[in-house]
Design goal:
Elements lengths: L5 E7 L3 H9 L4 H4 L3 E6 L8 E8 L2 E13 L3 E6 L5 E8 L4 E8 L6 H10 L3 H24 L1
Antiparallel strand pairs: 1-7, 2-3, 3-4, 4-5, 5-6, 6-7
Helix pairs in contact: 1-4
């Protein structure tokens, strides 16, 4: 069963190159994401590179790994979370005044059953958790905007 597409976007009054520099440094991910506490690439960031991640929600911490699936400088960064098959992406587009950034969570083939069971058991159910993820995406983009414009 396919999961809904989750998405947020923001307009940033800064050039694409500056926004890309902030976004493509995966060590910054904990600065942006309210859930991510660590995202460490195992080698140069390019398609196929794996990352080790640590996430947090309230008092619950859990490790994950992901794999960079797409890297188009100044245009797109995407990675697949190996535990649940979701693909997270950031797409950048120049605008008249700066950059539009769209953050998306794709789960075309659905989220793995074990992941959905865990979310239902400890995170208040899938619909609540997905709303929380979108809220987190909007917060992440606001933080990136503040850093790029600051």
């Amino acid at each position: 069963m396919a999961a809904p597409l989750l998405q947020a976007e923001i307009e940033i009054d800064a050039p694409v190159a500056k926004v890309w520099t902030l976004l493509s440094d995966l060590g910054n991910m904990p600065k942006w994401s309210p859930q991510c506490r660590l995202m460490k690439p195992l080698g140069a960031v390019k398609p196929g590179t794996r990352t080790v991640n640590l996430n947090r929600r309230h008092n619950l911490f859990w490790p994950t790994t992901s794999t960079i699936t797409e890297l188009i400088p100044e245009r797109k960064l995407a990675f697949r979370v190996n535990a649940n098959n979701t693909v997270w992406s950031y797409e950048l587009e120049p605008t008249a005044t700066g950059t539009r950034v769209v953050e998306t969570r794709h789960a075309e083939n659905g989220v793995k059953a074990v992941s959905a069971m865990a979310v239902n058991a400890v995170m208040g159910g899938v619909p609540n958790f997905e709303k929380e993820l979108v809220d987190g995406m909007n917060l992440s983009l606001a933080r990136i905007k503040a850093a790029a414009e600051g």
